[in-house]
Amino acid sequence: MIVIALALASAALAALSAAGEQRAASRLARKVRQSAPPPAPGATADPRRQVMRRRLRHGLGFAFALLTTPLWLASWVVDGGSFVLQAAALHLGSLSVVQPLMVTTLLFSIPLAALGTGRRPSLLDWVGAVAVCGGLVLVLSTRGSSGIEVANHATLIPAVLAVLLLAALLVVLARGRSAPVGAAMLAVSAGVLFSVGAAVTKLTTATAVDGGFVGLLTSWPGYALAAVSLVSFSLQQAAYARGPLAPAMTAIVIADPLTSYLLGVVGFGEPLPAPGAPLALAALGMGVLITGIAVLAHSPLLRPADAGERPASAPPTRASASTGDRGDGVPPGTGAGRRYAATGYPKGH
After folding, report:
1. Within 13 Å of residue 39, how many CA atoms lie on the same side as its CB?
2. Does residue 184 form part of some domain?
3. What is the mean pLDDT of the chain?
4. Quick one: where's region Disordered (predicted)?
5. pLDDT class for 118, splitting at 50, 70, 90?
6. Straight-line distance from the first to the last Cα atom of the chain, in angstroms, rounded to the nearest whole number
7. pLDDT tens, 250-301?
8. What does the pLDDT look like over 60-92, one tens digit per residue?
9. In this structure, is residue 38 part of a structural domain?
10. What phi, psi does 324 have (nearest 5°)?
11. Using CB atoms within 10 A as the burial measure, which of 128, 137, 163, 264 is most buried?
């Protein structure tokens, strides 16, 4: 029970952090747009080099302004607490339990997205929430008996390498594809890398417990975690910027727990459901869970309330994340600096 409680608390803090960061970024963006001088009459478009320089200047200025925003900084502290709780859950529990539970971030994000907007969750949102909860109950209740789960490097490392190869292949294949297809492929790549990050987090916490700070500095898991987190976070943002939000979010949230489940079984010896009814119920639960995720990812609460403002906890839409410099002092993709805790799992959780 302690593992479940830690994972759910981590998911709740992740959603709260996402809402706070997005709200802080949105407010700052509106202030910048309102204070930006209008373009000079008859001004023509800048050459590409000047546009890139202005983007860099505005982006750095916006990032510095965020670093001095109390709400944004407080949200990062909350997000740090979310990561600590998730790491503790992974250390004490199973990869195949903790990562599926992290999809409940979507459940917490729905009411946070509605907060202060005057909008309420729809009946379909509630149906999706019930499906996610019911699917998780079926999946987790059908696990076989578990002994002491220790990483088997002989099987874990080849499995991780296979996942990394799959992620790289998806990135290569995404080039030249249509926006929705390319975004989905990048999202799946990010999702499977998030599962690798979870597996490496489990190794990192074990290293920290056994060897302390010196052990972390002199072993590879901590460095691997930093590298995987950076790449997965970048791919997630690229997916959000490339195409429609809902399919990308759905792909990430589904790919992460599915791959984590497989890595847990292959690399940590976590049990599969027993053949027969338990296995059938687990498959049914996974199907119900995926359906609930897809329903919640398409919720109107996680889409822009209007053309000028996004809900507080929603990730960037393509229009806001992939357009060019608007000349208003707000860098492209303002407020896009999070994985939907989604989905999200913020910052490579």
Report:
1. 10
2. yes
3. 78
4. 306-349
5. confident
6. 21
7. 888 889 888 998 999 899 988 888 888 888 998 998 899 989 888 888 888 7
8. 666 677 777 888 888 889 989 999 999 999 988
9. no
10. -80, -175
11. 264
Domain assignment of residue 92, yes or no: yes
What pLDDT does residue 119 have?
A: 80
Burial class, 320, CB count within 10 angstroms (exposed 0-12 / middle 13-18 / buried 19+): buried
Q: DSSP label at 120? A: -
Answer yes or no: is 46 within a domain.
Answer: no
Give the pair of three-digit tokens for residue 12: 């709740």
Query: What are the structure tokens assigned to 5, written together?
Result: 């409680």
Instruction: Tell me what pLDDT residue 228 has.
Output: 94
Alpha carbon distance 178, 186 (integer Å): 12
Task: Specify the number of domains making up the chain.
Answer: 1
Q: Which amino acid is at 216?
A: L
pTM, entire model: 0.74
Instruction: Decide: 271 and 146 in contact? Cβ < 8 Å.
Output: yes
pLDDT-based confidence at 34, cuts 50/70/90? low
Give the rounded percent of residues in the chain with a pLDDT score beyond 70. Answer: 75
Full residue range of the structural domain in which residue 314 is found: 2-33+52-348
Q: What is the b/e burial string over 239-275, where b = at least 16 CB atoms within 10 angstroms of the residue's CB?
A: bbbbbbbbbbbbbbbbbbbbbbbbbbbbbbbbeebee
Long-range contacts of range 149-156, CB-CB < 8 Å, 24 or more positions apart? 149/94, 149/264, 149/268, 149/269, 149/270, 150/268, 150/269, 151/202, 151/203, 151/206, 151/267, 151/268, 152/267, 152/268, 152/269, 155/266, 155/267, 156/199, 156/263, 156/266, 156/267, 156/268
